[in-house]
Write a structure and sequence with these properties.
Layout lengths: L2 E4 L9 H10 L4 E7 L11 H8 L5 E7 L7 H7 L3 E5 L6 H10 L3 E6 L17 E5 L14 H15 L4 E5 L7 H7 L3 E4 L1 H4 L9 H13 L2
Parallel strand pairs: 1-8, 2-3, 3-4, 4-5, 5-6, 6-7, 7-8
Helix pairs in contact: 1-8, 2-3, 5-6, 6-8
This protein binds D-xylitol-5-phosphate and zinc ion.
Amino acid sequence: MPEILPSLLASDFARLADQIAQAEAGGATVLHYDVMDGHFVPNISMGPPVLASIRKVTRSFLDVHLMVTAPDLYLSAFADAGANSLIVHQETCPHLDRTLGAIKKLGLKAGVALNPATPISTLSEVLDVVDLVLVMSVNPGFGGQAFIPRTLAKTRALQAIRAERGLGFLLEMDGGLGAANVADCAAAGCDWMVCGTSVFGAGVSGNPDPAGAVRELSRLARAV
Ligand code: DX5
Ligand code: ZN
């Protein structure tokens, strides 16, 4: 069943526990946590200490998206802080097989993300190792950007490979997702849909009803 993953990047950070409770009241059981380092992407967000605080107020699965150069340096810090999955970018990992192995050794689900310009062929040798493949549907670094429609073809192609090779990885999409496109993503084979702005609105002046947004987006994604 397709899942909506509220992206905490779009929440009001001064009210994180409340915002998480609101998203969970709408049925969310997986939360997406964006880590940006100001090098791999032109923005800075949150690190392990904030994740550790979040871990204390929720039992939801914490899906951690590492938009950082040299993610290997931080894997154990995020594991200790309570991450359930760690997603690294293909573009940052010259030794991707080793990095994915290190994540699994920490007992976490191992994911790999692809920027819009990175072909899926770069993952052909690790698709039987990964638990998650994240197809970026915007160029990473910021919430609130427009969905890039041609990324749906990458999800469709990965879905076809998954079926053909009998593999079990989950397909995730991230960036610009909302009521206008979650059904298309689900139809393309996407299992996990990251929704930031469409759940929380824009930060402090955000959506007053994140629970309703998660409910409605889940309904749209599951109607496919
Ligand atoms: C973008 C991040 C996303 C972001 C999505 O680089 O990886 O997870 O929170 O935000 P929206 O849903 O607003 O595009
Ligand atoms: Zn993300």
